[in-house]
């Protein structure tokens, strides 16, 4: 399984970015997909997690990004997106997409973000820098 994240860059506060993650080699029928981030000197945190990419499922968003971030997917392109608006300097981080091969609508998406269900596959990350 390979994940390739892209779309990061330098943006001014208040600006927008859309991150993309192409997933290849995933053979399971359904999976959970998530975006995590890690700021310099900080711990990794789950930004947006969806519990069932095949059926749409439900999404969890980190409190600090709610209302500013939207998770979406294009299953035909094996691609997931993270649309980020009204960016703040504290959003500066490396953003990673990750996959858990077992997705299920009965599982709370927050448990994927919180690490209860550990993500098996990770992309290399894309850097987002928000200037003030």
Describe the model.
By secondary structure, the protein is mainly beta. It is built from one helix and eleven strands, in the order βββββββββαββ. 4% of the residues lie in helices and 46% in strands. The mean pLDDT is 93.
Number of strands: 11
Q: What's the tally of helices? A: 1
Structural class call reads mainly beta
Measured by DSSP, the beta-strand proportion falls in over 45%
* N→C terminal distance: 37 Å
- Please state the average pLDDT score: 93
- Enumerate the spans where pLDDT stays under 50 for 5 or more consecutive residues: none
Q: How do the helices and strands follow one another from N- to C-terminus?
A: EEEEEEEEEHEE
Share of helix, binned: under 10%
Largest sheet: 7 strands, mixed
Query: What overall geometry do the principal axes of the alpha carbons give?
Result: globular
Rg on CA atoms, Å? 14 Å
Summary tags:
four-stranded antiparallel beta sheet, 132 residues, 1 helix, mainly beta, seven-stranded mixed beta sheet
Short description:
The protein is mainly beta. The chain contains one helix and eleven strands. Strands 2, 4, 5, 6, 9, 10 and 11 form a seven-stranded mixed sheet that branches. It has a four-stranded antiparallel sheet with strand order 1-3-8-7, with no helix packed on it.
What topology emerges from the helices and strands here?
Blueprint lengths: L1 E5 L2 E4 L4 E8 L7 E7 L6 E6 L8 E3 L7 E6 L4 E6 L8 E8 L8 H5 L7 E2 L3 E6 L1
């Amino acid at each position: 399984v390979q994940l390739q994240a892209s779309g990061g860059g330098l943006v001014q506060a208040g600006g927008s970015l859309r991150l993309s993650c192409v997933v290849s080699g995933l053979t399971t029928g359904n999976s959970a997909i998530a975006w995590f981030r890690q700021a310099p000197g900080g711990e990794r945190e789950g930004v947006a997690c969806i519990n069932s990419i095949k059926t749409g499922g439900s999404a969890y968003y980190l409190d600090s990004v709610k209302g500013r971030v939207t998770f979406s997917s294009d299953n035909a392109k094996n691609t997931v997106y993270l649309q980020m608006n009204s960016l703040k300097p504290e959003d500066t981080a490396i953003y990673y997409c990750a996959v858990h091969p077992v997705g299920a609508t009965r599982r709370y998406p927050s448990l994927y973000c919180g690490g209860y269900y550990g993500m098996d596959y990770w992309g290399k990350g894309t850097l987002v820098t928000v200037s003030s």
